[in-house]
Amino acid sequence: MKAAFLQLRLIHGAFILSWLLFYFADGLHHSPVDKLTGMTVPLAVGVAALSSISVAQTLRQKLVIAPAEELARQPDNAALLQRWRSGNIMQFAFAESVTLFGLVLRLLGTSWPVAAPFFAVGLLMLLLNAPRDPSRQF
Model-level pTM greater than 0.70? Predict the structure, then answer.
């Protein structure tokens, strides 16, 4: 279980690194600011991001928290360990998707104040959903 936890920490670090790369990729992109004049597209992308956050939190309960509680009692259960690992990776992917929504908005020409909350929420989700060792959690 320790090896799986360390591997998951490495994957989490890779997701944080990719968040930084998305941030810097935005800085390399030179499009006219406010090319996208209406708020319809940013609002639609915001709804998509909110649904992504909602699904992530629902799956967190089923695929991360519940298996972690069981792993604390049964540390040798390979099926639970795999479910816990995949749940954590899905959490990282959902957090990254919120950041990608912000990057897409920037590529479409929205201003930084419109896209910045997507980047911030994506990073916050990554940091708050860092993997925790199930053997020490409960």
Answer: yes
Q: Which two tokens stand for residue 51?
A: 């649904």
Q: Which residues lie closer than 8 Å to 79 by C-beta, 6 or more apart?
A: none
Give the tens place of pLDDT for each residue, 64-106: 988 888 888 888 888 999 999 999 999 999 999 999 999 999 8
8 Å CB contact between 75 and 135: yes
Residues 126 and 123: their CA atoms lie apart, in Å, by 5
CA angle 66, 71, 72 (to 5 degrees): 100
Within 10 angstroms of residue 69's Cβ, the number of other Cβ atoms is 14
How far apart CA 123 and CA 105 sit, in angstroms, is 17
- Alpha carbon 98 to chain centroid distance? 7
